[in-house]
Specification:
It is built from eight helices and four strands; from the N terminus they run αααααββααββα. With about 170 residues, the protein is of the alpha+beta class. The strands form two sheets. The protein has a two-stranded antiparallel ribbon. A two-stranded antiparallel ribbon has the order 3-4.
């Protein structure tokens, strides 16, 4: 009877386990350690492709989906249902009065929302879009209102000529 190869002895029987480990976010190094396989051998078999490569890819896809699902849930907010027990004391003994079902709402996380929008729709939500028109700088005038540079020049010119502003009678 022929001896089993290293792959058939250590890797092949654990393909489902390897996929499960990867779906939970474990690194290839950690999986190799858990299986009692050298990292070099483990990577060699992954790079060959075949069943091990497929198991690692499937596990990675499951992990990505679970992270995506968790991020979506955090971005949108969610409700947590729980039961709260109310007690009362009768003749010195603690007695269950009633069980109340309650709902706690977890608010959406704006940081996750921004992250997801920038990554899912980068052409619309990136920080510096190329098609964004250049805006003129806005400054304060003496009346503490926002004006553009051109309006500021016109305002100073009118003021220098002694022309009163129809908004303010006083300078």
């Amino acid at each position: 009877m022929a001896e089993k190869s290293f792959y058939e002895d250590k890797i092949k029987p654990n393909l489902k386990k390897i996929e499960e480990y990867r779906s939970k976010g474990l690194s290839n190094n950690k999986i190799a350690e858990l299986l009692g396989v050298s990292k070099t051998a483990f990577y060699k078999y992954i790079n060959k492709g075949g069943e091990l490569g497929d198991s690692v890819k499937k596990g990675d896809e499951r992990f990505a989906l679970s992270v995506e699902s968790a991020a979506f849930r955090l971005a949108c907010g969610y409700d947590i249902k729980y039961k709260e027990r109310e007690f009362e004391y009768v003749k010195g003994k603690k007695v269950l009065k009633k069980v109340v079902e309650k709902v706690k709402h977890v608010l959406p996380n704006p940081v996750i929302q921004i992250f997801m929008l920038k990554n899912l729709m980068p052409e619309k939500y990136k920080d510096n879009p190329e098609n964004k028109k250049e805006e003129k700088p806005v400054i304060w005038n003496e009346e503490k209102t926002y004006i553009t540079e051109e309006e500021e020049k016109e305002y100073r010119l009118r003021r220098a000529k002694g022309i009163k502003d129809n908004k303010n009678e006083d300078f």
